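Usage

Read records sequentially. Each one opens with the input sequence:
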Amino acid sequence: MIKIIDRYIFKELFEPFLFGLGAFTAILSASMIMFELVRAVVLKGMPLIVALQVFIYRLPGIVVYIFPMAMLLAALLAFSRLSGESEIIAFRASGISLYRLIIPVLVLGLLVSLVNLAFSEIVVPEANLAAKNLLLETSTQYTPKLQKNVFVPEIEHGQLKRIFYAQVLKGNTMQDVIVQEFNNGQLQQIITAQAAVWQAAQNEWLFKSGIIYLLAETGEYKHLIKFKEQALAIKYSPSDFLIGDKNPDEMTMAQLRDFIKLKEKMGEETTDIKLQLNLKMAIPFASLVFALLGAPLGIARRRASSSIGLGLSILVIFFYYIVTFICMAIGELNLFSPAIAAWLPNFITAGVGWYILSQKAIG
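and closes with the structure output:
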C-alpha cells in the first residue's frame, strides 16, 4: 500500500515537473539570453551560428535556477489536484497523514537537488567559460580588443605557479610583458619582454627582445639570459588574458576555493567570492525546500489550473529571490557569515512550508 501511494504521487508530480521545465526554460531563456543575442545579431553583426552556439552554452547556466522552479510548480499543481478532487481527504480518512503523503515529494526534491548540484558543478562552469571564450575569440577575430594593465594569476594544485602582466594587450599581441614563475611558493625566475605574439598554429607565445632573470632558492639573483625571440608554451591564449579573473560561474567549487585562497594570500577582500561559493550549493537545494513549500500551498489552493499554478510559482520565486538579494546584501556588509547569508533564504522557505503543512495537518 505504501509503495502504491509513493508511485501514485510520483506520477502526479512527473507531468507538471516537465511542464515547469519547459515553461520556465522558455521564459528565462527569452529574458536572460535571447534578447541580448538578438540585439548582438541585429546591431553588432554577430553571425547567427555564433549566436546559436552562445545560446546553447549559456542555457545550462539558467537551468540551475529552473530546476527549483519546476519542482515548486510540480508540488503545487499535484497537491492542488489531489486536494481539489478530495483525494487528500480520502487518504487522511484511511489513516494516512499529510506528513506521510509529503515524503515522496521531499524524496523527489532531494533527487532533483542532487542532480542540479552535479549539473551546476560539472556542466555549467565549462559551458559558461566556453560561451565567454567564443564571444572573445569572435570579437578579437573581427575587431581586436584593446586592454591595458592585464594581470592574470595561474594556480596549480592550490599554489601560485605564475603571474602574467602586460601593459597593453591588443588582439594577439602583448606589449611590455612580465612573467613571474614560482616553485613551491618561491619566486624562481622572471621573464621580461618588449612584446609577445600569440602563435595559434604552435599554441605558444613568441616573446621578443627580452631577458630571463634566474633566481636562487634564497631569492638572490643568479644570472640572466638575453634573447631576441623565445617561444614559451603557456596554456593561456589571448582570449584567456582578456577574461582576466574568472567569474565564479565559470569555476567549480574546488577551483573557487583555490581562487579564494589565492586572493587571501594577495590580501584582497573575498567576502563576495565566498558568498558565490555557498550559493553554488544553496541554489540547487532550493528544489528541496520548494518541494516542502509547494505541497502545502497546493493543498491550500485546492483546484488550481496550470496557468494559476505557474503564476503563483512565479510570485513565490520572486519573493524567494528578494529575500536572497537582501541576505546577500547583509552578507556583503559582513553582518552575517557568507554561509548563513547564502543558506538563510532556504531555511526561511523551509520554515514557512513546514508551518503551512503543520497547520493543514492539524486542520
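Summary fields computed downstream for this record:
- The radius of gyration is 26 Å.
- Strands lie at 146-156, 159-170, 173-183, 186-199, 204-215, 221-232.
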